[in-house]
């Protein structure tokens, strides 16, 4: 698949700044984003666990110092995901560079690009703003098509990527939805996605039959429970065994979304950790990670695996129905990992939904962001 960045007459290279130099130099920061990153790094030095830093060095082949730098950049990018769209009407998305030395922000305005550069970001001039791309993706959501596996807004290529069995299926979807073909990139290398079922992170049984995994501990008022994948069980299904406490599915959504919350007994102890299968990761908040950020997943079939966020708000066409708003990652997973935790740094991200490939050859995995479950059902993430 070609993912060629669309640039205006001004070359992106001419606008680029060396955003990360201050992280390792120890010199005073000159711009706002560098100062934010320095503050984030100082906080991480006191809070990041040695196990997390070791994991980062192994996953990305970097030093401990570089791991702290990467986490600091990712923390700033997470903040910018909410701040930048409110400031720039020409905003077209942001992402962390492959080496995590830059936060790239796409815009359709040269004036805004100059402003972003002054703030310390690396601006990229593009043709289409994020509103236009998301509107096109919404048009695709309204149409069903054979041979299409999903679609998502790819901010790096400034296009909507349609994953399909062949070009004809993707073109047919775009034409049926009336979407400008200039906004579309076609990926025919993708595999048909499947939901991950049967077992997962800290395993639990549904109605003494299938198994899934706990996502994160939550409370609804004083009622304890946990979030998981919606395809694991419908409302009223019983959690009857496994490693998790017995409970009942109080709410479940699938397809459309893939989220559920399970109530457990009032005396059950809730922990703000994720099982790493060689220790545990503390959960401190639910700040959304930006594209390009590091992320890890826990599941009982394949254990603990890490990678990066590839895209937000992907539509996925499962055999059981279409699911909207998933996050795309290059972390591997296999059947049995459903419902398990996706976490970036110490920030809860969501619950494993499905994907393609495996942990031998690699693949693509999608997760349901945790935010809608928390807000729609009045849940509070357990962080202490």
Please tell me about this protein's structure.
The protein has three domains: 12-125, no CATH class; 130-187, GMP Synthetase, Chain A, domain 3; 192-384, Trypsin-like serine proteases (Thrombin, subunit H, Beta Barrel). The longest helix is centred in the first third of the chain and has 24 residues, at 64-87. The protein has helices spanning 12-15, 21-25, 32-47, 50-60, 64-87, 110-119, 130-141, 167-177, 371-376; strands spanning 91-96, 103-107, 122-125, 148-154, 159-164, 184-187, 194-195, 203-206, 210-213, 216-220, 223-228, 238-242, 247-253, 259-264, 273-275, 280-282, 294-299, 303-318, 321-329, 341-344, 347-358, 362-369, 380-381. By secondary structure, the chain is an alpha+beta fold. The strands form four sheets. It has an eight-stranded antiparallel β-sheet. A six-stranded antiparallel beta barrel has the order 17-18-19-22-21-20. A three-stranded mixed β-sheet has the order 1-2-3. Helix content is 26%, strand content 35%. A hairpin with a 3-residue loop joins strand 8 (203-206) and strand 9 (210-213).
